[in-house]
Structure to design on (618 residues):
């Protein structure tokens, strides 16, 4: 996405019109004072046709218009507006508040992300902001590259490579991309995608055709678009280099090359650049680099599996380092008081993935073959019913532990050249008093960051107030409750999850207030939602969602799998609550009030209790 700097005016005081009239003597009403929380001068609105503005006018008995359209004002003066955007990079808004003859006007100018406009009077054109992929790409020879671009509808579109090869691009008949905000909050799946556009073209060609030698060039294939008697050309802004398969580049993963010691030492891997986190590679993991696209590096995990990671998180090993691989030897399971530990001797620190089902945990090792002649149980622990292994591919090995109870948690680390998979014993739960004796960690979301409501309520203030109240309720029920923070000092995400693990949390719940991304209509999408990441946490998220809906009575946006750091810990069931939208005046007022905070807290406590009771009965 390209952002264009635009001159702007965001002068609340300077643009203010009539000053407030002198207040009557005894009980002066709050002053009429227009403030805009969003968009700020530095915000660039990412949506195309409509956007929300919100803020306060200082008192609830006044009326407000935005560009002439009436906007509802909450009794505390808060407002939110959903307004059409002009087809431009700047949008002027005139806000006029009126009460009993007193009027204040404020002009606000918002910046809007730039859009391409086809040139007038030309039959042929290329949207030069739409080239995909662009930048720097490294691939093995023979691997294909998908191309996409916007150009004049009905045109003949082709790519001329440096060697003279001509590759046609065809019209893409499928609908375009949806906005992520719509995917997250939209309740009607139909219509979430923009319709098929006649100006989107796609093509494919082997990497080596794009550029045999691009040293010094900005790109070396030329796109040619011809329509009627008109032809336009543009250099495709992509530089391609070829990786030599005879000289594999072996890298080691390290998410903290600066040695700050403040990270979780895990590098997330994605199946596609920008995709969902699917792997978590500990520092020291080695693999072959099989591709690169700008700041993303592709790791070849096995012949059929790849993962994209941040280029900043990999360090190349000396030239000539052989790719990791070999055979995995005999494994042993050792019972300990709170867990059982599986020790897997590895030939190298190969990439792995742990997945869980209701009653099983599976370790998948990449780039290795099985020589697991022995699987020693080390006693007959009641937690693990059975261990099994499989070799689903010549260079992938899985070891599965079938558990008697439901999965509660696990963690993995390298110990020298061994991999240790530690599986947690579930807590002994009393179905009558499931919370009694349990360790619950509550995480008041933010700071740093966090959303702001129309009257200026900060999310971290609301989440701490709710967490303190939920602590009181859970302690009354017999739990030991710990908060990741109890003051307003910023705390990064990893120290929060580390805190929960170090204190042996049986359950972790992170408390937040929601905010909309650009382009989502706040009047049709707001409500309660709860997120989880690991399968075992789905029941916790569902129980929290139900309890919060019962307490707060807001629209149920449902539970969802969300890629949040506080929902990802593997050692305990964890979920993240977004009970209300702080940007909606009524919901901000709820989050600001004692009564609303108690409701949110009761929902959290009741959800945790319902989850633990459900588990106690299984
Ligand atoms: Zn938040």
């Amino acid at each position: 996405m390209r952002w264009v700097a635009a001159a702007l005016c965001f002068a609340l005081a300077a643009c203010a019109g009539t000053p407030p009239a002198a207040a009557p003597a005894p009980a002066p009403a709050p002053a009429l004072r227009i403030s805009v929380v969003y968009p700020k001068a530095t915000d660039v609105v990412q949506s195309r046709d409509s956007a929300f503005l919100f803020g306060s006018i200082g008192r609830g008995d006044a009326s407000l218009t935005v560009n002439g359209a009436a906007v509802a004002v909450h009794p505390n003066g808060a407002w939110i507006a959903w307004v059409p955007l002009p087809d431009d990079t700047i949008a002027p808004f005139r806000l006029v508040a009126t009460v009993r003859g007193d009027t204040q006007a404020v002009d606000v100018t918002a910046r809007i992300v730039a859009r391409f406009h086809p040139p007038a009077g030309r039959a042929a054109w290329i949207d030069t902001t739409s080239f995909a992929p662009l930048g720097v790409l490294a691939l093995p020879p023979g691997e294909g590259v998908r191309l996409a671009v916007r150009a004049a509808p009905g045109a003949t579109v082709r790519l001329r490579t440096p060697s003279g090869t001509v590759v046609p691009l065809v019209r893409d008949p499928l609908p375009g991309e949806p906005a992520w905000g719509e995917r997250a909050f939209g309740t009607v799946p139909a219509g979430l995608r923009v319709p098929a556009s006649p100006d989107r073209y796609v093509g494919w060609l082997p990497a080596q055709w794009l550029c045999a030698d691009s040293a010094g060039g900005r790109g070396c294939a030329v796109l040619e678009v011809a329509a009627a008697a008109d032809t336009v050309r543009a250099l495709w802004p992509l530089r391609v280099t070829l990786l030599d398969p005879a000289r594999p580049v072996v890298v080691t993963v390290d998410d903290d090359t600066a040695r700050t010691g403040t990270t979780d030492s895990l590098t997330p891997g994605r199946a596609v650049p920008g995709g969902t986190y699917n792997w978590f590679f500990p520092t020291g993991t080695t693999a072959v680099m099989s591709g690169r696209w700008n700041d993303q590096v592709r790791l070849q995990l096995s012949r059929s599996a790849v993962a994209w990671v941040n280029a900043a998180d990999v360090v190349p090993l000396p030239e000539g380092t052989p790719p990791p691989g070999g055979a995995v030897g005999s494994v042993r399971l050792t019972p300990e008081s709170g867990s059982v530990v599986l020790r897997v001797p590895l030939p190298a620190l190969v990439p792995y993935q742990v997945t869980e089902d209701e009653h099983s945990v599976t370790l998948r090792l990449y780039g290795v073959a099985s020589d697991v002649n022995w699987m020693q149980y080390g006693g007959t622990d009641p937690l693990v019913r059975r261990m099994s292994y499989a070799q689903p591919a010549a260079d992938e090995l899985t070891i599965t532990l079938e558990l008697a109870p439901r999965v509660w948690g696990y963690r993995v680390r390298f110990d020298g050249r061994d991999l240790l998979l530690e599986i947690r014993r579930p807590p002994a739960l009393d179905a009558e008093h499931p919370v009694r004796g349990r360790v619950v960690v509550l995480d008041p979301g933010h700071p740093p960051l966090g959303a702001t409501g129309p009257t200026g309520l900060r999310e971290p203030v609301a989440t701490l107030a709710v967490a303190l109240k939920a602590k009181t309720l859970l302690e009354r029920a017999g739990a030991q409750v710990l908060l990741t923070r109890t003051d307003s000092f910023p705390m990064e995400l990893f120290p929060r999850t580390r805190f929960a693990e170090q204190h042996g949390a049986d359950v972790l719940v992170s408390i937040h207030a929601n905010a909309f991304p650009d382009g989502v209509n706040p009047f049709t999408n707001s409500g309660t939602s709860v997120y989880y990441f690991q399968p075992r946490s789905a029941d916790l998220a569902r129980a929290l969602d139900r309890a919060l809906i019962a307490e707060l009575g807001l629209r149920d946006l449902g539970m969802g799998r969300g890629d949040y750091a506080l929902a990802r810990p593997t050692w305990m069931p964890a979920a993240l609550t977004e009970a209300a939208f702080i940007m909606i005046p009524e919901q901000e007022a709820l989050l600001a009030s004692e009564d609303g905070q108690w409701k949110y807290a009761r929902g959290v406590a009741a959800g945790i209790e319902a989850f633990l009771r459900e588990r106690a009965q299984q």
Observations:
- Confidence is low (pLDDT under 50) at residues 1-23.
